[in-house]
Amino acid sequence: MRQPPEATLPVPEPAATALPPPPPLPADAALFLDVDGCLLPFAPRPDAVEVPPALLARLTVLQQTLGGALALVSGRNLATLDQLFAPRVFAAAGLHGVERRRLGHTGVASDAPPALVRARDAAIALVDAHPGALVEDKGAALGLHWRMVAPEHKAAAELALRAFAAGALSGLPDYQLQPGDHVIELRPRHADKGSAILAFLKEAPFAGRVPVFAGDDLTDEPGFCAVNANGGISVLVGDRAGSAARFRLSDPAAVHAWLGVPADPNPETSR
Questions:
Q1: Rounded to 5 degrees, what are φ and ψ at 84?
Q2: At 12, is the secondary structure helix, strand, or coil?
Q3: Residue 111 catalytic?
Q4: Of 34, 36, 216, 220, which one is the catalytic site residue?
Q5: 18, 26, 98, 236: which one has the fewest Cβ atoms less than 10 Å from its Cβ?
Q6: Beta strand 175-180 with 210-215: parallel, antiparallel or unpaired?
Q7: 10 Å Cβ neighbour count for 239?
Protein backbone atom coordinates (compact mmCIF):
# COMPACT_ATOMS: atom_id res chain seq x y z
CA MET A 1 0.00 0.00 0.00
CA ARG A 2 1.44 3.34 -1.00
CA GLN A 3 1.91 5.90 1.67
CA PRO A 4 0.34 9.30 0.96
CA PRO A 5 2.89 12.02 0.33
CA GLU A 6 3.78 14.04 3.39
CA ALA A 7 2.00 17.31 3.69
CA THR A 8 4.28 20.27 3.21
CA LEU A 9 4.06 22.40 6.30
CA PRO A 10 4.23 26.15 5.81
CA VAL A 11 7.56 27.61 6.80
CA PRO A 12 7.01 30.37 9.35
CA GLU A 13 8.40 33.74 8.43
CA PRO A 14 11.46 34.62 10.52
CA ALA A 15 10.91 37.06 13.34
CA ALA A 16 12.55 40.43 12.98
CA THR A 17 14.68 39.68 16.04
CA ALA A 18 16.87 37.61 13.70
CA LEU A 19 17.90 40.77 11.84
CA PRO A 20 21.22 42.41 12.79
CA PRO A 21 21.47 46.02 14.00
CA PRO A 22 22.21 48.57 11.28
CA PRO A 23 25.73 49.82 10.62
CA PRO A 24 26.64 53.40 11.52
CA LEU A 25 25.20 56.02 9.21
CA PRO A 26 27.41 56.43 6.11
CA ALA A 27 28.91 59.88 5.68
CA ASP A 28 27.18 60.05 2.29
CA ALA A 29 23.78 58.85 3.50
CA ALA A 30 20.44 60.07 2.19
CA LEU A 31 18.50 59.63 5.43
CA PHE A 32 14.75 58.96 5.43
CA LEU A 33 12.93 58.59 8.74
CA ASP A 34 9.42 57.53 9.64
CA VAL A 35 7.97 59.42 12.60
CA ASP A 36 5.38 57.55 14.68
CA GLY A 37 6.75 54.29 16.07
CA CYS A 38 10.22 55.12 14.76
CA LEU A 39 11.42 58.57 15.82
CA LEU A 40 8.62 58.91 18.37
CA PRO A 41 6.89 56.29 20.52
CA PHE A 42 3.17 55.87 20.01
CA ALA A 43 0.88 57.97 22.21
CA PRO A 44 -2.74 57.23 23.13
CA ARG A 45 -3.80 59.98 20.70
CA PRO A 46 -1.96 61.12 17.55
CA ASP A 47 -2.00 64.70 18.83
CA ALA A 48 -0.40 63.73 22.16
CA VAL A 49 3.12 63.03 20.87
CA GLU A 50 5.97 65.45 21.52
CA VAL A 51 9.39 65.80 19.91
CA PRO A 52 12.14 65.86 22.57
CA PRO A 53 14.44 68.88 22.24
CA ALA A 54 17.51 66.61 22.07
CA LEU A 55 16.03 64.74 19.10
CA LEU A 56 15.17 67.95 17.26
CA ALA A 57 18.67 69.30 17.88
CA ARG A 58 20.28 66.09 16.60
CA LEU A 59 18.11 65.99 13.46
CA THR A 60 19.14 69.58 12.77
CA VAL A 61 22.82 68.65 13.05
CA LEU A 62 22.34 65.57 10.84
CA GLN A 63 20.53 67.66 8.24
CA GLN A 64 23.52 70.01 8.09
CA THR A 65 26.11 67.21 8.20
CA LEU A 66 24.40 65.36 5.35
CA GLY A 67 24.18 68.47 3.21
CA GLY A 68 20.40 68.63 3.60
CA ALA A 69 19.84 64.99 2.63
CA LEU A 70 17.42 64.18 5.45
CA ALA A 71 13.67 63.78 5.00
CA LEU A 72 10.76 62.74 7.20
CA VAL A 73 8.56 60.11 5.53
CA SER A 74 5.31 59.82 7.44
CA GLY A 75 1.64 58.98 7.37
CA ARG A 76 0.96 62.39 8.89
CA ASN A 77 0.37 65.33 6.59
CA LEU A 78 3.00 68.01 6.04
CA ALA A 79 1.18 70.61 8.12
CA THR A 80 1.14 68.32 11.15
CA LEU A 81 4.80 67.39 10.69
CA ASP A 82 5.73 71.07 10.67
CA GLN A 83 3.78 71.63 13.89
CA LEU A 84 5.50 68.67 15.56
CA PHE A 85 9.04 69.63 14.56
CA ALA A 86 8.70 73.43 14.83
CA PRO A 87 10.61 75.63 14.52
CA ARG A 88 12.61 73.36 12.19
CA VAL A 89 11.26 72.56 8.73
CA PHE A 90 12.58 69.42 7.06
CA ALA A 91 12.20 67.94 3.62
CA ALA A 92 9.27 65.58 4.01
CA ALA A 93 6.76 63.22 2.46
CA GLY A 94 3.36 63.21 4.13
CA LEU A 95 0.27 61.02 3.86
CA HIS A 96 2.46 58.02 2.95
CA GLY A 97 3.93 59.87 -0.02
CA VAL A 98 0.85 61.67 -1.35
CA GLU A 99 2.35 65.00 -0.25
CA ARG A 100 6.04 65.71 -0.81
CA ARG A 101 8.21 68.75 -0.16
CA ARG A 102 11.84 69.34 -0.99
CA LEU A 103 14.00 71.28 1.44
CA GLY A 104 13.43 74.99 1.05
CA HIS A 105 10.15 74.56 -0.84
CA THR A 106 6.55 74.92 0.26
CA GLY A 107 4.54 71.73 0.31
CA VAL A 108 1.14 71.73 -1.36
CA ALA A 109 -1.65 70.17 0.66
CA SER A 110 -3.88 67.70 -1.13
CA ASP A 111 -7.61 68.44 -1.23
CA ALA A 112 -10.11 65.98 0.21
CA PRO A 113 -12.75 64.80 -2.28
CA PRO A 114 -16.40 65.34 -1.25
CA ALA A 115 -16.89 61.61 -0.67
CA LEU A 116 -14.07 61.62 1.89
CA VAL A 117 -15.60 64.61 3.67
CA ARG A 118 -18.88 62.72 3.91
CA ALA A 119 -17.04 59.65 5.18
CA ARG A 120 -15.29 61.77 7.83
CA ASP A 121 -18.59 63.17 9.09
CA ALA A 122 -20.13 59.70 9.24
CA ALA A 123 -17.06 58.31 10.99
CA ILE A 124 -17.26 61.01 13.66
CA ALA A 125 -20.80 59.85 14.40
CA LEU A 126 -19.72 56.21 14.40
CA VAL A 127 -16.94 56.56 16.98
CA ASP A 128 -19.47 57.91 19.50
CA ALA A 129 -20.69 54.32 19.80
CA HIS A 130 -17.15 53.12 20.59
CA PRO A 131 -15.67 55.13 23.49
CA GLY A 132 -11.95 55.63 23.00
CA ALA A 133 -12.08 55.36 19.21
CA LEU A 134 -11.22 58.49 17.27
CA VAL A 135 -11.12 59.97 13.80
CA GLU A 136 -7.91 61.58 12.56
CA ASP A 137 -8.65 64.08 9.81
CA LYS A 138 -5.53 64.32 7.61
CA GLY A 139 -7.09 66.38 4.86
CA ALA A 140 -6.78 64.09 1.85
CA ALA A 141 -6.66 61.00 4.09
CA LEU A 142 -8.68 59.72 7.02
CA GLY A 143 -7.46 57.61 9.93
CA LEU A 144 -9.76 55.58 12.20
CA HIS A 145 -8.06 54.63 15.48
CA TRP A 146 -9.03 52.17 18.21
CA ARG A 147 -5.87 52.16 20.36
CA MET A 148 -7.62 53.79 23.34
CA VAL A 149 -10.72 51.58 23.32
CA ALA A 150 -11.05 49.47 26.48
CA PRO A 151 -9.52 45.99 26.00
CA GLU A 152 -12.84 44.19 26.35
CA HIS A 153 -14.38 46.33 23.59
CA LYS A 154 -11.36 46.70 21.31
CA ALA A 155 -12.19 43.78 18.99
CA ALA A 156 -15.72 45.05 18.38
CA ALA A 157 -14.47 48.59 17.71
CA GLU A 158 -11.84 47.33 15.29
CA LEU A 159 -14.42 45.26 13.42
CA ALA A 160 -16.81 48.21 13.16
CA LEU A 161 -14.16 50.70 12.02
CA ARG A 162 -12.70 48.31 9.45
CA ALA A 163 -16.16 47.55 8.08
CA PHE A 164 -16.96 51.26 7.90
CA ALA A 165 -13.72 52.01 6.05
CA ALA A 166 -14.35 49.19 3.58
CA GLY A 167 -17.83 50.52 2.90
CA ALA A 168 -16.59 54.09 2.44
CA LEU A 169 -14.00 52.87 -0.05
CA SER A 170 -16.74 51.98 -2.55
CA GLY A 171 -17.37 55.69 -3.07
CA LEU A 172 -13.67 56.54 -3.38
CA PRO A 173 -12.36 54.80 -6.53
CA ASP A 174 -8.95 56.47 -6.31
CA TYR A 175 -8.41 55.46 -2.68
CA GLN A 176 -7.20 52.37 -0.87
CA LEU A 177 -7.32 50.98 2.65
CA GLN A 178 -4.07 51.22 4.58
CA PRO A 179 -3.91 49.09 7.74
CA GLY A 180 -1.60 50.13 10.55
CA ASP A 181 -1.02 49.70 14.26
CA HIS A 182 -4.53 50.01 15.78
CA VAL A 183 -5.63 52.12 12.82
CA ILE A 184 -7.18 51.76 9.38
CA GLU A 185 -6.76 54.59 6.90
CA LEU A 186 -8.46 55.70 3.74
CA ARG A 187 -5.75 57.24 1.57
CA PRO A 188 -5.07 58.01 -2.09
CA ARG A 189 -3.50 55.06 -3.86
CA HIS A 190 -1.34 56.86 -6.41
CA ALA A 191 1.69 57.10 -4.10
CA ASP A 192 3.44 55.31 -1.24
CA LYS A 193 6.56 55.79 0.85
CA GLY A 194 8.64 53.90 -1.67
CA SER A 195 7.67 56.16 -4.55
CA ALA A 196 8.34 59.22 -2.38
CA ILE A 197 11.84 58.00 -1.48
CA LEU A 198 12.60 57.22 -5.13
CA ALA A 199 11.48 60.72 -6.11
CA PHE A 200 13.79 62.26 -3.51
CA LEU A 201 16.70 60.13 -4.75
CA LYS A 202 16.40 61.71 -8.19
CA GLU A 203 16.91 65.20 -6.76
CA ALA A 204 19.66 67.15 -5.02
CA PRO A 205 20.79 66.84 -2.29
CA PHE A 206 19.67 63.17 -2.09
CA ALA A 207 20.87 62.01 -5.53
CA GLY A 208 24.04 59.92 -5.59
CA ARG A 209 23.94 59.12 -1.88
CA VAL A 210 23.40 55.86 0.01
CA PRO A 211 19.69 55.66 0.86
CA VAL A 212 18.87 54.81 4.50
CA PHE A 213 15.31 54.36 5.70
CA ALA A 214 13.99 53.46 9.16
CA GLY A 215 10.34 52.67 9.84
CA ASP A 216 8.16 50.39 11.89
CA ASP A 217 4.86 49.67 10.16
CA LEU A 218 3.42 47.89 7.12
CA THR A 219 3.22 51.27 5.39
CA ASP A 220 7.03 51.40 5.48
CA GLU A 221 7.53 48.20 3.47
CA PRO A 222 7.50 49.98 0.05
CA GLY A 223 10.20 52.26 1.45
CA PHE A 224 12.32 49.31 2.52
CA CYS A 225 11.98 47.77 -0.95
CA ALA A 226 12.94 51.04 -2.66
CA VAL A 227 16.02 51.44 -0.48
CA ASN A 228 17.08 47.80 -0.92
CA ALA A 229 16.78 48.12 -4.71
CA ASN A 230 19.17 51.07 -4.59
CA GLY A 231 21.86 49.42 -2.47
CA GLY A 232 20.80 51.15 0.73
CA ILE A 233 20.17 50.36 4.39
CA SER A 234 16.62 49.41 5.44
CA VAL A 235 15.88 49.37 9.18
CA LEU A 236 12.79 47.89 10.81
CA VAL A 237 11.92 49.38 14.20
CA GLY A 238 10.22 46.83 16.45
CA ASP A 239 9.64 43.12 15.90
CA ARG A 240 7.45 42.09 12.96
CA ALA A 241 7.85 38.95 10.88
CA GLY A 242 8.12 39.05 7.10
CA SER A 243 9.57 42.53 6.67
CA ALA A 244 11.74 43.42 3.67
CA ALA A 245 14.04 45.35 6.00
CA ARG A 246 17.56 43.97 6.37
CA PHE A 247 18.40 45.47 9.75
CA ARG A 248 16.50 46.04 12.98
CA LEU A 249 16.33 48.33 15.99
CA SER A 250 14.11 47.48 18.93
CA ASP A 251 12.28 50.78 19.55
CA PRO A 252 12.48 54.57 19.15
CA ALA A 253 15.00 54.79 22.01
CA ALA A 254 17.31 52.50 20.02
CA VAL A 255 16.76 54.68 16.93
CA HIS A 256 17.81 57.73 18.93
CA ALA A 257 20.97 56.00 20.10
CA TRP A 258 21.78 54.93 16.52
CA LEU A 259 21.29 58.50 15.30
CA GLY A 260 23.48 59.88 18.08
CA VAL A 261 20.78 61.63 20.12
CA PRO A 262 22.22 62.30 23.60
CA ALA A 263 20.57 60.25 26.33
CA ASP A 264 18.32 62.23 28.64
CA PRO A 265 20.05 62.32 32.05
CA ASN A 266 16.71 62.93 33.78
CA PRO A 267 14.06 61.01 31.82
CA GLU A 268 11.44 61.31 34.56
CA THR A 269 11.62 65.10 34.73
CA SER A 270 11.28 65.51 30.96
CA ARG A 271 7.86 63.91 30.79
A1: -65, -45
A2: coil
A3: no
A4: 34
A5: 18
A6: unpaired
A7: 15
